[in-house]
UniProtKB/TrEMBL annotation:
<dbReference type="InterPro" id="IPR050961">
    <property type="entry name" value="BolA/IbaG_stress_morph_reg"/>
</dbReference>
<protein>
    <recommendedName>
        <fullName>BolA-like protein DDB_G0274169</fullName>
    </recommendedName>
</protein>
<dbReference type="GO" id="GO:1990229">
    <property type="term" value="C:iron-sulfur cluster assembly complex"/>
</dbReference>
<comment type="similarity">
    <text>Belongs to the BolA/IbaG family.</text>
</comment>
<dbReference type="InterPro" id="IPR002634">
    <property type="entry name" value="BolA"/>
</dbReference>
<dbReference type="Pfam" id="PF01722">
    <property type="entry name" value="BolA"/>
</dbReference>
<feature type="region of interest" description="Disordered">
    <location>
        <begin position="112"/>
        <end position="131"/>
    </location>
</feature>
<dbReference type="GO" id="GO:0005739">
    <property type="term" value="C:mitochondrion"/>
</dbReference>
<dbReference type="InterPro" id="IPR036065">
    <property type="entry name" value="BolA-like_sf"/>
</dbReference>
């Protein structure tokens, strides 16, 4: 069994990558559910599911704050608001239960190829409760 937690400094942010041969559905059930739903519905050419919960005041290992990057032909001729609605509808159960925040980057393959392919870091958590 291979387990490891690695951090990679990328554009002034630290991205945590957990590598394991264990069943990721058990280790990260919400992340796995998000990945499966987006993969099945949108067949993306590129997809990233980034758990940003560690940036917030939640218990270690939480799955409450995510950023998704989805590149799909299914976004062709769809305005940005429609792309976001598609993703929000696919993840309706997660958003109504455990996911507190979802940041979405939704592009066509052409837009992705023309872009820098760098994802902007999310802003630092302000602590909530009007702080």
């Amino acid at each position: 069994m291979l387990r490891g937690l690695y951090h990679i400094k990328h554009n002034c942010r630290v991205v945590f990558t957990h590598t394991t041969r264990m069943n990721s559905t058990i280790d990260k059930p919400i992340e796995s559910s998000i990945k499966e739903k987006l993969q099945n519905a949108l067949t993306p050419s590129h997809m990233e599911i980034i758990n940003e919960s560690y940036m917030h005041n939640v218990p270690k290992g939480s799955e409450t704050h995510f950023k998704v990057v989805v590149v799909s032909d299914k976004f062709q001729n769809q305005p940005l608001i429609k792309r976001h609605r598609i993703i929000n509808e696919l993840l309706e159960n997660e958003l109504q239960s455990v996911v507190h925040a979802l940041s979405i980057v939704a592009k066509t393959p052409e837009q992705w190829e023309e872009s820098s392919k760098k994802i902007s870091p999310s802003p630092a958590c302000k602590g909530g409760f009007g702080k």
